[in-house]
Write a structure and sequence with these properties.
Elements lengths: L1 H4 L6 H18 L5 H13 L6 H19 L6 H8 L5 H17 L1 H4 L8 H10 L6 H12 L7 H4 L2 H10 L6 H17 L1 H4 L3 H12 L4 H15 L4 H5 L3 H11 L4 H6 L55 H16 L4 H12 L4 H13 L1 H8 L3 H11 L5 H13 L1 H5 L7 H12 L4 H18 L7 H12 L4 H18 L6 H17 L7 H15 L4 H27 L10 H17 L4 H5 L3 H9 L4 H17 L1 H4 L3 H10 L6 H18 L7 H12 L6 H17 L1 H4 L3 H12 L6 H16 L2 H4 L2 H9 L6 H18 L1 H8 L4 H11 L2
Length: 838
């Protein structure tokens, strides 16, 4: 404290460092400070807040907020009144130091400030801050706006009372010469869009014009804050109405923001074309997080649900948010709002950019084309037969940054490409992307691998004729890639296996693919996080290869069991001796459980011998009770897969497993709940009538979930299938409450493909209608619709449908049936007539 506040002859960095050392001590041990020391530190902070040095003032501010956020705001009652009083000091340094400290306190302790604990100091502070919006010093004005901004999103009452005065003051600062002030004004307006749109609406025209100007601000930080405005506005229902008249101005501003700046190009080493032999540093490799296995249904109109997670505009060396990314994201969401209406403003710009001689402009045009893909797909379709071949030629551009963005842009149009004749679009795109996977530039390799994974998801079995060619390339890349891209390559191989499935199970493909994967597997240690992507990849490969994976399964299975065992042991040790032993990284266990699931799914009954000679069931039982939801999620998926593959080993443990499944039917944890429900359905089919004792444990929960508003589609479908399966094996137990779930049951299952799960669920509903026909009467139209969703039911199931439909018709009489069926939509009428003679 002495060095920080009194030793003014010492250089400032040394004084500041002593303050930061004290701050770390406060953070760790303040409650243990003797009271006299604590009082001394607090007093010295306040008396030195006006130090002539900005660095020392900032350090003291950090020290004050650290004390305050250790729960000491309550024990330092004069802090806020004193700081507020110091704002009125004639001395600039004192005023600025006090404001700097207040800003940090508002950032760190906003919730406490807005609570009764401190007698609501904001009622005094916010009007006080508003007075300083017009202060002569730009730094003070900036502090004042930043302080108030902390309370917008939480709709703090003290601010809402002065909201009009706040907005008026913001408008007065709109053209402030200080960039920091303009930045804070933009930030305030963006947050107000979310919480007080009603107050901004009357001024919206002027605000939009202002934000257009600020998005082009010479100061990049201001421009970035302003650019956020378009992203936030696009999520508001009134966006279309408010922006329709401004698109001609806004679109060029956003497109212009999508060019690389000179600094970007330097940071991205834009002039380096070949770097494939340069090893990656640790910083190059982002931490990977494993997504636990979630069981879902295949839909009748599959292919529409491409995942968005790989669609991010991704330059990870520039992983911090910048104008380029923000402009591209804004254009993306606006394309989804305005659809084709955006194109008249965009196409002339695109035409110029895509064929520009300067690579920086051309690259930005390719980014624009990718950004609008989702929203403007329909309007762009007429131009794509010419544009896609142009982009495919850009894959050979001499600039690596052009090649890499082209990979991403093309991946955004993969759905369209797959819908065209293969020889005109898919083949040329595939062969060029595969060439880019072997590019000599690491950034291009990465972009090409990610784009190819997206193409795989869209093309699925369309890729089967080219599998040899594809595997040749991917296996060659194994020996070419540095560390980071190797992890992305695993993903591309896993996605390929998911997409082509059992078509991969050919001796020549297995011989190409498995040796390099197993070689990597043997090289990696149990604690190496590179195991995550490799295990995920192997899980997909095992599922696809089915019996083709048998020669490799034993060591893989054994290692997974060991990983689970090791993690559980480490967790037990950590619980009993938290000081001596570290908590384990449970991701290892999750990935191992998921690979065991993949093995059970792929090998089916062949996994029986492995399960019989390992402790996998007792380990899984422990995982099912883990505190971490992702561990439970993966263990329930494994339980379902083992139930299907080798129920003879699962059955003795059912009385232990079912109560655990029952307590995990909490729809707040969607994926855990989903997998538990799926596992219950699989167990029901295997248990048959012996399931009776467990029906009361789960049925009411399932009925609550299927009737719950806003339940995700996958969860609804799995719930409906499991209710159907319970009804199939125990109709007497489930049928009495048929009326409580029949309508959502029918609407949930009408869109899924014909498959075994749907088959058993519908057999269940037919059995329940047999026991309790009155339960379906009120919602019979929904049952008719669900029956009509079948393309090709098995003969005996079709017969069941026929009996129920004709039974109902004869029950109500011809005239009543005619009136009833008049409300059917024409396609439903036609299907029932053609298939069931209704």
């Amino acid at each position: 404290m002495f060095v920080l506040t009194k030793l003014t002859a010492e250089d400032e960095p040394t004084r500041s460092l002593s303050g930061l050392i004290l701050k770390n001590n406060v953070k760790a041990h303040f409650t243990a400070f003797p009271p006299t020391v604590a009082v001394f530190v607090k007093r010295e902070c306040l008396s030195s807040i006006g130090d002539p040095s900005p660095l020392i003032r900032a350090t003291i501010g950090i020290l004050i907020t650290t004390i305050a956020s250790r729960g000491e705001l309550q024990n330092w009652p004069d802090l806020l009144p004193q700081l507020c009083a110091l704002l009125d000091s004639e001395d600039y340094n004192t005023c600025e130091g006090a404001f700097g400290a207040l800003q940090k306190i508002c950032e760190d302790s906003a919730e406490v400030l807005d609570s009764d604990v401190l007698d609501r100091p904001l009622n005094v502070m916010i009007p006080k801050f508003l007075q300083f919006f017009k202060h002569a010093s730009p730094k003070i004005r900036s502090h004042a706006v930043a302080c108030v901004n902390q309370f917008i999103i939480s709709r703090t009452q003290a601010l809402m009372l002065h909201i009009d005065s706040f907005i008026e003051n913001l408008f007065a600062l709109a053209s402030d010469e200080e960039p920091d002030v303009r930045k804070n004004v933009c930030r305030a307006l963006v947050m107000l869009l979310e919480v007080r749109m009603d107050r901004l609406l009357p001024h919206m025209h002027a605000i939009v014009q202002y934000m257009l100007q600020r998005t082009r601000d010479a100061d990049e930080n201001v421009a970035l804050e302003a650019c956020e405005f378009w992203l936030t506005l696009a999520e508001q229902p009134v966006c279309k109405e408010l922006l329709a008249g401004h698109l001609a101005q806004l679109v060029p501003v956003l497109v212009n923001g999508m060019k690389y700046s000179e600094i970007d190009i330097i940071l991205l080493k834009g002039d380096v074309e070949e770097d494939e032999s340069v090893p990656d540093t640790e910083q190059d490799i982002r931490p990977r997080f494993h997504r636990s296995r979630t069981v879902s249904q295949a839909h009748a109109a599959d292919g529409q649900n491409s995942t968005d997670e790989d669609d991010d505009i991704d330059e990870d060396a520039l992983s911090d948010w910048n104008i380029r990314k923000c402009s591209a994201a804004a254009l993306d969401v606006l394309a989804n709002v305005f659809r084709e209406d955006l194109l008249p403003h965009l196409l002339p710009l695109l035409k110029e950019l895509l064929f520009h001689q300067d690579w920086v402009y051309k690259e930005s045009g390719i980014l624009v084309l990718g950004a609008i893909a989702e929203g403007c797909m329909q309007g762009m379709s007429p131009y794509l037969p010419e544009l896609i071949p142009h982009l495919i030629t850009c894959l050979s551009d001499k600039k690596a940054l052009v090649r890499s963005i082209t990979c991403w842009s093309l991946s955004r149009y993969a759905h369209w490409v797959v819908g065209q004749p293969a020889e005109t679009q898919l083949q040329p795109l595939m062969s060029q992307l595969l060439a880019r996977i072997l590019d000599s530039n690491k950034r291009v390799q990465e972009a090409a691998c990610s784009a190819f994974a997206t193409l795989e998801e869209e093309a699925c079995t369309e890729l089967v004729p080219y599998l040899g060619f594809i595997l040749d390339t991917l296996v060659f890349a194994f020996n070419k890639y540095q560390h980071k891209n190797l992890l992305i390559l695993y993903d591309a191989i896993g996605t390929l296996a998911d997409s082509v499935g059992h078509h991969l199970n050919k001796p020549e493909f297995i011989q190409m693919l498995m040796p390099p994967l197993i070689q990597k597997w043997n090289l990696l240690k149990d604690e190496d996080k590179d195991l995550f992507p490799l295990l995920e990849c192997l899980s997909s490969v095992a599922t696809a290869l089915q019996s083709g994976f048998l020669p490799y399964c034993e060591p893989v299975y054994q290692r997974c069991v060991n990983l689970v065992q090791k993690t559980l042991n480490q967790a037990t040790l950590h619980q009993s001796q938290p000081e001596e032993s570290e908590a384990p990284d449970k991701d290892f266990m999750i990935v191992a459980l998921d690979l065991l699931s993949g093995l059970a799914e792929g090998l089916g009954p062949h996994v029986e011998g492995l399960v019989a000679h390992s402790p996998v069931l007792s380990l899984m039982y422990q995982c099912m009770q883990d505190k971490m939801p992702e561990v439970r999620q993966s263990s329930f998926a494994l339980l379902g897969d083992l139930t299907k593959a080798c129920f003879q080993h699962v059955k003795p443990c059912i009385s232990d497993f079912m109560p655990v499944l029952g307590v995990n039917l909490n729809p707040e944890l969607i994926s855990v709940c989903n997998n538990a429900i799926w596992a219950i359905g699989e167990i029901s089919i295997q248990m048959g009538t012996e399931m009776q004792v467990y029906v009361p444990m789960v049925l009411n929960h399932l009925v609550d979930i299927i009737n719950r508003a806003n339940t995700p589609k996958t969860l609804l479908e799995n719930t409906a299938i499991t209710i159907g399966r319970l009804g199939f094996v125990c109709p007497q137990e489930v049928a009495p409450i048929l009326q409580q779930f029949i309508r959502p049951w029918c609407t949930s299952l009408r869109n899924i493909r014909d498959n075994e799960e749907k088959d058993s669920a519908f057999r269940g509903i037919c059995a329940m209608i047999g026991v309790n026909p009155a339960g379906v009467v009120q919602d019979f139209i929904f049952f008719c619709d669900a029956v009509a969703s079948w393309v090709n039911p098995k003969d005996d199931l079709r017969e069941m449908f026929y009996k129920i439909l004709h039974g109902f018709k004869s029950q109500v009489g011809v005239e009543n049936w005619r009136r009833f069926s008049e409300q059917f939509p024409p396609p439903l009428k036609e299907r029932l007539s053609v298939y069931y003679g209704m």
